[in-house]
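Contributing new records

If you add data, match the layout below exactly. Sequence lines come first and carry their own label; structure lines follow with theirs. Keep one chain per record. Anything else will be rejected by the validation script.
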Amino acid sequence: MGGIYWLISQVMLFWHTVWDKVVPDHRTLGTNWQWVLAIVFLVITVRVVLFPIFVKQIKSQRAMQAIQPKMKELQEKHKGDRETLQKEVMKLYQEEKVNPLMGCLPMFLQIPVFIGLLHVLRHLKPGTSNHQMELYGWSIPEFMGAVDARLFDAPIVAKFSSSAADLAKIEANSTTVKIVAALLVALMITTTYLTQRQMIMKTGWNSDPQQRMIQKFMLYGIPFFTLTSGWYFPIGVIIYWVTNNAITLGQQYWVLHKYPPPASATANTTPYKSKGGPSLTKGGAPAAKPAGGLRSMLSKAKDEAAAQQAAAAAAKQAQANGKALAPKPGAKPINPKKGGAAKRQSG
């Protein structure tokens, strides 16, 4: 992992050097923007590198949705024969050129980056020897500058769970650190939930129980994980996570509109319904509701009047042709004598 730590450090230091020439050297709003923007642009660098893989991930998810009807047929056909089912599924993947692992690849590739940044920020602490400061290509002034860097007066190396003794070493206020960290954790949870919700709103809930369980875990499980673990992340790591989620939301919006779900996939999904909210169609629009009120009453009366006019016209045409009509329920019987007399007069 030493190579990952060195690479993460070098990308951060590069962007810090760039932004150090653009923004003022002193703190603005209690923030050293050179270091904050260095973390933000670390995320952007990683996402630019992984963007082609991200597009492949969406295409792979679309392909998996498209073959769901065939998957369901295989499950019904080989029910109880797990070995044969696995062989047929692998054969289907080969025929359709689908790689189910591609859907998780971008997330797996970002894990080393996340762990690398977490390690680097935990490495940044006062009292470190000169030799340790210069690990991963840092200079001593850069190391000390990162240790002292702040976001709204909260050090980026501090965390919500930092002890009073640790905060005293970096001259940080415990209340300020907890407020900033708590707000960032709330943003992290919200943006994590929204990224998963955006995907499900577009594709709908999968009708397959196992796939639906995975969707529910992604929608609720991962935000819960960030809630329980976010208190132990340095503020710099949470900045990374929130920025990553924000970029993911934008990328997903673009890709989901450029590569919409296949038509065949909609038969295997159900509309997404938010808690307490309306059902949503696959495009995210509210499902149509039946018309009601005055408009409905006027439309009904108009239809009844049209039906009565059609019935009267039919009866008149039938009498003209000399055909007897059966009386309708509630209608007055036709006098056969009048009909006969009129017939003789016309004759």
